[in-house]
Design brief:
The structure is a homohexamer of 324-residue chains. Chain A is α+β, with helices and mostly antiparallel strands and 324 residues long. In chain A, 46% of the residues lie in helices and 18% in strands. The two termini of chain A are 43 Å apart.
């Protein structure tokens, strides 16, 4: 078995009885794994000196025991620049899905009627699109991968669009824009580097959190627009631009729904409650999807609890298919 | 101003300084009001002897002060049977909306693919349709009116249908049936009498609550079907009938989402989480709708907090309408 | 040292430095232990091929280190059918205690005055007695052993009987029947197989939990009785059978006492509160008993906290015994 | 209708439209009521000058409206010293019940085997018996009457005795002494004056609460015994006196069961948990008894929620009585 | 008794028995009171037509009954512009105290060493000083008066200064600036109009709350400074301006201490914890001060609980004064 | 590298693959470490027979791997009595700091004006000073070292003194005495032996906790004073001695601030709230100090969360220093 991966970490360790080894963390766009390299490995010296971030082609037989993954024998070579670029581009299936999701986001933005919200969303995609595409929706728990935020936002936009059809009194423009911006502060909290697969930590994310950062970003983009050519024509519009801005900020500020979950502001409009439930449903849905993929089966159809879900899971009921 | 209403209650009271009066509660399908009749009212004696449930045509000039509604002068006459029947039929606009909602429910049931779930839903509407149509979704807070449960279920079915479109892996049949049955125990907790506008209390509702009662009802209907002609043909179907029954019961048992809110069971499938959020969103939406209609304005666009919502409300942002 | 046990599980593992071994789980009626078999064990091959559930006579010298139990040297032979049957029958002392407890339960049932409750309890013991006797009261924490539910129910009946003597207004018949049925849903949540010592997982237990399952069981047994010969004579009794059924179901539905602990219904009668406290006390008492047996001593008379108890424990004060 | 009562309070008030009246609070051993005296009452002047605590014989026709109790016409005369003494002695039925309860407490104390605990309990009854007999178990909610603590302690002792029979490993001496002292700090938190029916407030009760005060009292009584003649002979006893004292204090310190309910210490022994549940059950039982007596019926058999109980109540199931 | 006040509100009401009156709310800088004007009042017509905000000199005899304050007879005249200006300036003692507090704030700002923080604070006082001086620290509970925020901030600065002396490692500059800005969002949540004594509601306060608004304000002022002349010279300073800004924003974002109390961010630096405790202490201290002034005495030295404090209060222990 | 330490513990262990070793715990006044001694160590036999508490001079080369600290080769010799005494005296820097802190405490006690409080504090230092100096402020989390309570109390006294300057109405004497006694119960909960570095467990600490023990200690010391010569002269003082005692006990009883954190009593005076916040701030400050010293850096300036703090930490902003 051969695979390509980036060296994401390396620690010098010893077994309980003193046998030294290197613990190597390898990552690609789909996740990471940790591998041991024993002192008698042919490339031990070379491994000890690799720079973090190096691209590797790894070849070998691997087994998993309760201590992690072990390979015997295994070897590696450095990736050439072409292969490295492909590695960084990520798993093609994931990439294709995220590209489709991003196109959906652009489509929803194009469908907005309110010229202020439409311009603001477009301005965001224009200026921060690249950073957006390499941001996760969370550090763990759900959509915790490069591009995860794009997937989360696109699915929430589809839900918001569907729910706006069911509740016609909801302001669809506001909800779609609210979905786009609700987690935008995570561009400074859960972002990946341009050439790497390890979520970093940013001081601003730690010290403010994504809700205040998101409010700051919306305000900054809004000020940009005020210096643009269309700004004059917006003064006559109803509802007023200032009211539109406040409602949008309210969605960002209140989307966790309650103080306990970190919203500085409680929802005060129907759109705020709708956004909160759409967000929560998608997060839970993805947690379950991850859990179904990873959890041990305790008995037929029953899977072991996966944090942060509160209980064991049951395999979903297959849809009934009419045979004929 | 003249209106028709049913006598829903009557208490003998006195002012602080000893002046006696009757406190009369009048109700129709849209709500109730409380009126004072002073001892010098021309029909005081007649009022004192009316039977609860009598239908009245009330005529007069009414004002509201901080003590409630007072009328001066006002009079009433008894409704003839025709007018009484009309009164019990309820406000035509509400009735029309509830009829449309009920038709939607029937349409969704007709659209189910799984023959077990489809038969179960149809059996429920057949046997308990009338009782369902005079049940509220709650004692207060949201949809607290005769027929409120039909409105709540119909809207949730529309949401479930929309969300199933966004998450194609969800089992649409299961979700729609789950919506229909999730609150069916309320037929013994929040039901209205056949000829009256006051929600009663049932011993079974008090002693078990709507979740255990709902599970009991689903099981009872399921046993009925097992004695029906199609039952034999269902034995070969996949997934098995027993698994379908368990998943449906699971949706009823877990729809409050957490123990704190009274679910004996925590959600263990994606459909259970989806149903929980669809339910919660519709309940909050209706609470807000009621609150916008009733709350005092504290300042332009700001309305006073209405229990059980957690904060003041803000008037929603009007949708932007392109002028041309 | 020789002992008899059933093979309850086997995993292939390796030490940190790559030495392979089998991790064997052996169980009998009093608990389970985990043993390592190294690759150089004389019966390693035979061990690798044993069927789960096999009965073994194990002989050897065992020591416990921080990694678990290790034996050197140890060997095993297969149990003959006789010895296997004895093993499955369980530890004689435990068995004798559970038999006495079961006889107590039968005695309490025989002492009931209300013919409906008496018949219902007897019907339960008749139909489900065997399953009841191999059910635990919980998956862990307290009475987590085959037959544990019988012990828990018998002790609670003794308490309920005693408390009914102290509070004569309490309905003793109702309380004793309530104790018998309060956890009966656990027959599908915490049951052991007929020939094994490992609690299984049932889909119905996962998807509904023992409270809804218990309500369903009581209702099923009740319907059985309605088809019986005495049913006609019960129609004249006071209180009515329907009221008796509701009160009994209420005890099952409310016995966890609060929503947070998973009751779908809050206690609404004195018997419901009494049952809740009697249950809680016995659970805590058994947790402490287990903890006293297992916990490390931190200092003379002080034992280390054992989950789920909230703090360190103190050795109980010995009863004062008059010497003379 | 005539009744005897003590003047427990008097306020000068006016109706909304300016009519002055006196609001008189009258109390006896069973409770209190509030009565209006209008300015035109024949004894208005005399009423205005009565001293608080005066004993009155009140005669008249009384009605209750939503503003309280009103009488027309009514009059009063001062009680003679004999009648006053009878009034202070309290309702004979209550008094008889409390006397029987007190005798039970003395009987349980006499039955203790541990000479230290027996002497301590007897010393408490000896020194603080009178104060104990005029203390309530709470300011409101349950046993909130002169002598209520005696009733609560006696019933808990009967329960503790019964439970010790069911769990023979429990230390019965310790539990009975623990019951006697668990709320003894309330002698400074919920006590009534020697000649009155209104619970006072004591600075020590406010500033420390009954748990620290109870610990202080047990320690004080214990020190008294150390100066007594038997002290020398106790030094040889096992368990040691110091250990007995600590266990007894532990029961006082932990009887609320959790920090949230104000225990500075969490239960660490089986007796501590048992005492906590016995206490809780008796408090809940009395809250229900009061609620059944006071609550409005919402429907046959369903009573309106009474604070601090969490829900509506249901009338208990009458015991089945064999007719023959 | 004569006093000057502003007409802050007027409602038409009736007594229970139908007698009409005006409920007049009068306010000055120290608080407000509600007065009834009966229909037979000599100036009833004039009162009905007064504009809200009018200044009145009120003269009469006033009594308080349980329904509020009533006066008989009373009259009023309109204030001349001079008197009106004096009224708006407020109670001289309060004004003097707030002026001294404001001077303290200016003094602390002048004492800062970090030129960025010093400039930012001065810029705030310069631009928003007037609005700051007419803002309360809360809508109710503590410092709920025009200028209350100045009092709260000044006292907290004195505390921060004192605590920085005790913990020399704390960054005094950062803490003092953090105190000045921690509640600055309240300038849009709890502000008073320029000529009135009634706290208004602002849409931005409702939709964002004071923490996001405060962050927005600090950022706005910071951008202003970046366009100023000193900005260039700051580039070389250490710590960097960006780090200073983040730490200051962190103090604003985290000052409620936990999510439950509405902080979007949890404290991550010692200064953040210190600020949280300094804030909390001053708020509690003022709640107690208000409570001591308002609460009923339940017994000597014991005062009735005042929301939101959790329990009854006890009169503080007077300081011991050495007599000589 | 050589260091002196006390043998605080020894366990016989094996590696996963069966290699035996001794796990040695060595402690000095600054903390403890755990070291492995393999069976081939030259002093293995001697190590196996050392008495706990022996003083050792350890010499060798040490490395830390993920399993703890290992040394190769290392040796030890027994300390002579002189060296042992020095070891027990502790780290000179810590000792000097604690001596200075203790002198501060004595200074604050000397500064009290109220003769009762001053005598009580002096009596405590006199009788329990030594035990106080070897007590920690907690078992873990903060000041968890011999003498930690002295450091905590001294710093809190400095804060209380500073805060009393800012809020002149606070009773400084009461606050300083309250600080001295607030945790004095920990002398039986977190004390170290006279010649050792391992916190023990005391039965009284487990069974009562430090708040009830602290109240008991204050009462005991108070009784001592009542037998002293000054007691007579105190009878005329105002406020009364009894009131002073109650207020001091109130500070001990309420210093955790809420029931959830184990206070049996809620704060009812300004001094009680002030003490609670001063305590909380110092505990949090020390937790952070420990965390900054121990936590892994996740990114520049960001440190990993350390229990019980609720989030990651950020390196504090350095104070600005004017260069010139």
């Amino acid at each position: 078995m051969e695979f390509h991966a980036q060296l994401a970490g390396r620690k010098e360790k010893e077994t309980k009885s003193g046998k030294p080894y290197l613990e190597i963390t390898l990552a690609d766009s789909t996740g990471s794994l940790t591998l041991k390299a024993w002192a008698d490995h042919a490339q031990y010296g070379q491994l000890s000196e690799l720079k973090e971030g190096a691209g590797l082609a790894v070849d070998g037989q691997f087994t998993r025991n309760q201590w992690g993954i072990d390979g015997s024998p295994w070897s590696f070579s450095l990736l050439d620049p072409n292969a490295m670029q492909q590695l960084l581009a990520g798993d093609p299936a994931t990439l294709a899905r995220q590209n489709a999701d991003y196109a959906d986001i652009e489509g929803f933005v194009a469908s907005l009627h309110d010229p202020r919200l439409k311009a603001l969303c477009a301005h965001f995609l224009n200026v921060f699109g690249d950073r957006f595409r390499r941001t996760a929706a969370a550090r763990r728990n759900h959509h915790a991968r490069r591009g995860g935020l794009v997937e989360h936002v696109a699915q929430m936009m589809r839900s918001a669009n569907a729910i706006a059809g069911v509740y016609p009194a909801l302001n669809r423009d506001l909800m779609l824009a609210g979905v786009l911006f609700h987690d935008c502060g995570k561009l400074w909290e859960n972002t990946y580097p341009e050439s790497g697969f390890t979520q970093g930590f940013q001081l601003s994310g730690e010290m403010l959190g994504h809700i205040p950062l998101g409010i700051e970003l919306v305000n900054k983009l809004w000020r940009d627009l005020q210096e643009g050519p269309e700004h004059e024509s917006w003064k006559a519009l109803s509802p007023s631009s200032e009211l539109v801005r406040l409602h949008l900020l309210h969605l960002v500020a209140s989307h966790h729904g309650t103080h306990e979950f970190g919203s500085p502001t409680l929802p005060r409009t129907p759109e705020a409650y709708a956004l909160h439930h759409i967000d929560n449903l998608d997060a839970k849905y993805e947690m379950m999807k991850d859990a179904y993929a990873k959890a041990n089966e305790l008995a037929p159809g029953i899977l072991e609890r996966q944090f942060p879900l509160p209980s064991n899971l049951v395999v979903p009921l297959p849809s009934f298919v009419q045979s004929d």
